[in-house]
UniProtKB/TrEMBL annotation:
It comes from Ilyobacter polytropus (strain ATCC 51220 / DSM 2926 / LMG 16218 / CuHBu1). Keywords: Hydrolase, Plasmid. InterPro entries: Cof, HAD-like_sf, HAD-SF_hydro_IIB, HAD_sf. PANTHER family: HAD SUPERFAMILY HYDROLASE-LIKE, TYPE 3, PHOSPHOSERINE PHOSPHATASE. It comes from the Bacteria. This is Cof-like hydrolase. Coiled coil: none annotated. One of its GO terms (cellular component) is cytosol. GO terms for molecular function: magnesium ion binding; phosphatase activity. SUPFAM superfamilies: HAD-like. Pfam families: Hydrolase_3.
Amino acid sequence: MKILSFDLDGTLLTDDKKISEKTLEVLLRCKEEGKVIVFNSGRPTQFIYSVLPEVFHEDIVISSNGAMVYKNKKLMHENLIDKNTVWDIIQMIETVFNDMFFIVEQDNRSLTRCKDREYNKQMLCNYHEFSKENVLDSPKILLKTKDLDYFDLNILNMLIPESCRLIFTDNMEFAQLVHADTNKLYGVNKVLETEKLNLEELVSFGDDFNDLEILSWSGYGVAMGNAIEEIKNVSKYIADTNEKDGVAKFIEAYVLEKIEAA
């Protein structure tokens, strides 16, 4: 158990997007013991650093569902959707789903056409109006599907090129579009190569569909007590919930104390 990968929302963070005092204490003990710590989220890079205490900014951050890998805030690896594909996808989606809210993540900023500034403040960091002139290669396109009066998953899948894949999260509220090769396991495998570690030494925590691959293949895949059933079914262990310090309790019992989980 030399490397630990943490999802954020619904896992490491409480429901109010904080790291509890108990969890913070346990994470610091992991650092003292020399564990490799990875913060592995579907969120954009700037959001992840905004919720992490500065002491963890030197650790590894994987953002946008595995598309971007950072260490000490320096980019180690990226796997992006090219800008022409981004433009084509958004044009098609806006034609078919006229009112679908979207975010195009890129280069420490986010592009959108949403006019609700309060919603933007909740969802985005450094947002800009979407136009062809300011589109760059992107790690992820986020689509908000839940509020649509009409939404057909089959039609959406038909619009997505083979070079990309869809990941649904948050009770199907969001569809996250990434490069076809990209997921959280892809990102952490880049870290394992650099750190000369293997999957058997990896402890990973998660709760939603975008954690499926990494929890399935980790030596120690840990679903949160609040995880969806599909995630619990592929995980070797189930921790307490994110509101009850599930990550910290598992680490204290099975990682720091080096006791084999039953």
